[in-house]
Amino acid sequence: MPQSTKKPHPVLKDYYGDEESRRAYVDDLFDRTAPYYDRILRVGFFGTGQAYRRFVLKKSGLKAGMKVLDVATGTGPVAQEIRKVVGDDHLTCVDPSRGMMDIARTKMDATFIQSLGEQMPLPEREFDRLYMGYGLRHVRDLHELFSEYFRVLKPGGRCTILEVSRPRTKRQFALARFYFRDFVPFVGKVLTRDPDGHLLMRYFWDTIDQCVPPEEIQDTLRAVGFEDVQRDVQLGVFSAYTATRPAE
Ligand SMILES: C[S@@+](CC[C@H](N)C(=O)[O-])C[C@H]1O[C@@H](n2cnc3c(N)ncnc32)[C@H](O)[C@@H]1O
Q: Strand locations in 11-101, DSSP E?
């Protein structure tokens, strides 16, 4: 275990009792809501999410021939865009939720590994690019996660992390809160007719609201050795962090 620690957010007592119970809670939530996840993305976000993921991947310099790791694959929205560029043979997908990955597996023939991003059964210096879409808030520890990213990337390799950030201005915050805390959970409830769809989206908002600020995420990337750490923000909420493992 690394000496420094950085939890992505404090314990959320409305959902689970203590830090030890969080992992089981998160895995169970994603397993149970996996069948609805794609529908909620399509309707709740008006299909814009996929175009944004494509935009970020293109900007990151993803090219054919690269070996790529997608962490927090879920049902595969990021992975599907990666495979269009590098093909299934060059893509490895990691996620702890069997329910989510079972759905991703039906869409592509990449290599799938059921694992936490913080501790991956993968060799060091293996990948040219690493992506993580909206999984950062669910990990045990950011320092541990980024150290693991550093380990598996080749020197000169780059990671790109997509995450929703708490907006800074009052107006943007009020808008985002309505959208993520009220509108998207409502869509989840209507589409799934299941309280779990609603719960997942409520939980999302609370983890966004309570997440450590972007500066701490960037500082933690630097602390484990990454350089050229940057953050691109769209609409005040959609952050794409990029960081490079120094070349040797
Ligand atoms: C909101 S989904 C994101 C799926 C997809 N990447 C996307 O862009 O929509 C979050 C995913 O993170 C996964 N996850 C949760 N904890 C994780 C961890 N510690 N390491 C890696 N993935 C994790 C969940 O199982 C879930 O599939």
A: 68-71, 91-95
- The CA-atom distances, in angstroms, between 115 and each of 34, 73, 90, 121, 196 are 17, 11, 19, 8, 23
| Global pTM value | 0.94
Residue 137 Cβ inside 6 Å of ligand 1? The answer reads no
- Decide if 105 contacts 125 (C-beta within 8 A): no
Is there an atom of ligand 1 within 6 Å of 117 CB? yes
SS3 readout for 116-131: CCCCCCCCCCCEEEEE
Question: 130: which residues sit within 8 A by CB, 6+ positions away?
Answer: 68, 69, 70, 71, 149, 152, 153, 157, 158, 159, 160
Q: What is the pLDDT of residues 199-227, one digit of tens each?
A: 777 888 899 999 999 999 999 999 999 99
Nearest to 157 by CA among 60, 29, 84, 73: 60
For residue 222, the one-letter residue type is R
Q: What spacing in Å lies between the alpha carbon of 74 and ligand 1's midpoint?
A: 5
Closest residue to atom 26 of ligand 1, CA basis: 74
Radius of gyration (Cα) for the chain, nearest Å? 17
- For residue 124 the two structure tokens come to 């060091």
- As separate numbers, helices (DSSP H) first and strands (DSSP E) second, the chain gives 9, 7
The CATH class given to the 20-167+204-244 domain equals: alpha beta
Q: Whose CA is nearest to atom 9 of ligand 1?
A: 77
